[in-house]
Amino acid sequence: MLITAPILSKGSFFGSLVNKCRQVSKILSSKNQINNNNNHLNTPTSSSTIPVNTSTSNSTCINRPIIAANISTTAPVLKTIEERMGLPARPKKPLTPYFRYMKDVRPKLTAENPKLSTPDIVRLVSKKWETVDLKEKERMQAEYKREQEKYIETCTKYNAKLTEEQRAEMKQLKQDIKDEKERRVIRKRIKQLGRPKRPGSAFLKFLSKERIRTPQHPTESYRDWHRKCADKWAQFTDEQKASYMEESRKEFVKYKQEISAWEEKMIRLGNIDVVRHGNLIDPPEPKSKKN
Questions:
Q1: CB atoms < 10 A from the CB of 143, how many?
Q2: Is residue 267 very low, low, confident or very high in pLDDT (cuts 50, 70, 90)?
Q3: What's the half-sphere exposure (Cβ side, CA atoms, 13 Å) at 148?
Q4: pTM of the model
Q5: CB 209: neighbour CB atoms within 10 A?
Q6: Burial level of 284, CB count in 10 A (0-12/13-18/19+)?
Q7: What is the domain-level CATH number for residue 185?
Q8: What is residue 273's DSSP assignment?
Q9: Mind listing the pLDDT tens digit for each residue in 140-165?
Q10: Are residues 21 and 61 located together in one domain of the fold?
Q11: Within 10 A of 188 (CB to CB), how many other CB atoms are there?
Q12: Among 145, 161, 191, residue at a domain's last position
């Protein structure tokens, strides 16, 4: 609100009122529409709905919360193996009677009990499933068996259309996904167990200092800035790179001591899966500049 004078004050009631009325009259002559919208936004109302003006001049200001609320924050759905290979979708397995019952009942229970957590809702569904009539369960089980037979038949026809190359590629892709999942689990365990962090190379040392000396311009992309730094590094002589190499080498010597002590501790604790099987590799020496 524009009128913010202490109107209830006894000493300056009329003076403040007259001055504020003059200010309001001057502002309203040029920005009447803007003031109206601000009054709507700043005035507390009993309803949670805020009146929105569709005026072109203020659409950006008013619609910004609406646009922000419509931004999806969900993670992208991972593609299936068939989608990655460009194949038709594989037939889906039918739901068992219990999961079909959960699919039908869970939304209603969630709406009736909004304060319950997901595990509590699942427990509630499980209790209700125990009270379902036996004949109804037998009917759902018979329907599930029919759908299961139809699924096996459809899946057999689907697999018959695949070539040997597609089968081999699918098998390899499944193995790659499994290996990547195991690597993620190992990386997570390594982080939780506090493995010493490997120091950066000489070029990364140079890059971190370049961020201070010649920071990235607001209109410059990171790729262009990185390429510019790489070109500058390539122009350095061995003497200019020596300080960065020495700093990296000292940190690597310290890292070798820390990682050896950490791996000995992991072996004693029985965490053999997080211990390296190969030897440490010293950082590469800088290549001499070609004449």
A1: 13
A2: confident
A3: 9
A4: 0.47
A5: 12
A6: exposed
A7: 1.10.30.10
A8: G
A9: 999 999 999 999 999 999 999 999 99
A10: yes
A11: 10
A12: 191
